[in-house]
Amino acid sequence: MLNYRNTNIVFFVLLALLLLLSFFVKVNWWLFLLLFVARFIVIITGSTQIPLNFFLKAYCNNPLEKEKKVALTFDDGPHEMTLLVLDVLKKYNAKATFFCIGKNVEKHPEILKKVISEGHIVGNHSYDHSRLFDFYRKDRLVEEIAKTDALIEKISGKKTNLFRPPFGVTNPSIKRALEVTKHHVIGWNIRSLDGIIKNEKLVFNRIKKLISPGGIVLLHDTSLQSVNALEQLLQFIEENKYKVVSLEELLDIKAYED
């Protein structure tokens, strides 16, 4: 299995072989460079592709699910648009998981209360969702995650077990932090790209092509195109006999501590 540990083992074995070989024959310097570049590419790919489980185990779907069940997840709220998302979900009697940013919880506590009161699950998506998040050291990561946990617990009365790393990036520091906080890491296998694509039809069509039993859909509750794409998606799900289920049901995990 391709992961960080195995990558390092292969790298150091190959490096040792090249060094040993260099005692007997001339070894071109570019072979060493090629080895380092290959390791760099593999690690960057593993860091940015959460379904690879390169540094840690992340739940990105349920590959054993044969029934037409999917889970909906929303990142980066709570936000004013969250209210419109909730209206669409209620219209189709669908439940979702909202991965919330701590500073947005502080800004919109009433919206988070509404999310919870309507039966949706809440997860942790860091405190500030900084672009530097994956460069933080373990202690700061633990502090960020714990701070957001506390904000969610203050409103919900429950401590969430679910964490989604900003941008889906993982690395050794994040792994060590999560060994402390004990969260389940939640990824996705159906990425809508609604944070990049501004055309709701293109967002919907992308999801439609990727949807399959056991899938986890990533959307954002921060834009009108996402709200409109969600409406089209739920119509499609209804027409094609899919069922929206919670992450707890899809993955057989607990969203909150007992």
TrEMBL record:
Gene Ontology biological-process entries: carbohydrate metabolic process
Chain ranges of the NodB homology domain: 68-245
InterPro entries linked: Glyco_hydro/deAcase_b/a-brl, NODB_dom, Polysacc_deacetylase_ArnD
Keyword annotations: Membrane, Transmembrane, Transmembrane helix
Entry keyword Hydrolase: no
PROSITE patterns registered for this protein in UniProt: NODB (PS51677)
GO-annotated molecular function: hydrolase activity, acting on carbon-nitrogen (but not peptide) bonds
Alphabetized Pfam families for the sequence: Polysacc_deac_1
Domain of life: Bacteria
Listed transmembrane segments: 7-25
Signal sequence residues: none
The keyword Transmembrane helix is assigned to this record: yes
Entry protein name: Peptidoglycan/xylan/chitin deacetylase, PgdA/CDA1 family
Lineage: Bacteria, Pseudomonadati, Bacteroidota, Flavobacteriia, Flavobacteriales
